[in-house]
Amino acid sequence: MASPRSLAISFFVLLIIPAISARISVIKLPGSDGSNSAAKTYCESWRLAAETNNAGTWNVIPSMCVDSVADYLNGDQYGSDYGVIADYAIAFAKSVQISGDGKDVWIFDIDETLLTNIDYYKAHGYGSEPFDSNSFNEWVVQSTAPAFDASLRLYIALKKLGFTIVLLTGRDEDQRSVTETNLRDAGYSDWERLLLRGPEDQGKSATNYKSEQRSKLIVAGFRIHGNTGDQWSDLLGFAVADRSFKVPNPMYYIP
Predict the structure, then answer these.
(1) Domain spans in the chain, listed from the N-terminal domain onward
(2) Fewest CB atoms less than 10 Å from the CB: which of 4, 33, 46, 232?
């Protein structure tokens, strides 16, 4: 027969083990309990962190967020977000005193800024698959990427205000012809310069490459008032614009 002391210890252990188990069971990853609501909330927060550069360097979107990112890109919110940014950019542009000497510049990135590659990324997991440069280059050669409504509206407004447009892209120089064709077919025209990566730019980070190109423009006497891009590397670094406008892109990150 067990002593009263041993019974008391056994009873205490039976009480404490369920309590510990209960505490451990509530520590779960977002959405791991099968709750669509929890996963959606997490993914919206992740997207905000990515857009504001708080997520730092990342390679692919979280696997649990594929549906959330797809819903965002294919729904009304994506276009609305871009439209609001375009409105702010136009408001700023109207405040700039244009000299009339052709040196007042606005810079645009191309991919996911002027042209949307959403049809390509639909077929590649909306950014959940590692980037394949060969596959993407095959898409670029087709020259079928459409314009964003908001970016085309911004582009046209800037031209009417008298800005000189410079296009600064991470695409390679050997893609110049197909890029120009795609841009014109999408509705863009009359840019001053289209700057692409040459042999000497290979291996440079996007931030360094684009900063160097902006610096060359400034040395040539251009005044960079505005810059629009979907990546922070389009906007940061040195020789930056007076105002930069980051447009949404939750599909990929380029340092």
Answers:
(1) 34-246
(2) 4
Give the residues of the chain that fall short of pLDDT 70: 1-35
- Report the topology of domain 34-246: Rossmann fold (3.40.50)
pLDDT at 17: 36
- Environment class of 129 (CB within 10 Å of its CB; exposed 0-12, middle 13-18, buried 19+): middle
Burial class (CB in 10 A: 0-12, 13-18, 19+), 116: buried
Q: Write the single-letter amino acid at 226.
A: G
Distances (CA, A) of 175 to 89, 200, 229: 29, 16, 19
Short-list 177, 191, 233, 243, CA closest to 209: 233
β partners of residue 172: 197
Straight-line distance from the first to the last Cα atom of the chain, in angstroms, rounded to the nearest whole number: 72
pLDDT tens for residues 164-219? 999 999 999 999 999 999 999 999 999 999 999 999 999 999 999 999 999 999 99
What is the structure's pLDDT at 36?
A: 85
Q: Please state, in angstroms and rounded to a whole number, the distance separating the CA atoms of residues 72 and 66.
A: 10
The reported pTM is 0.86
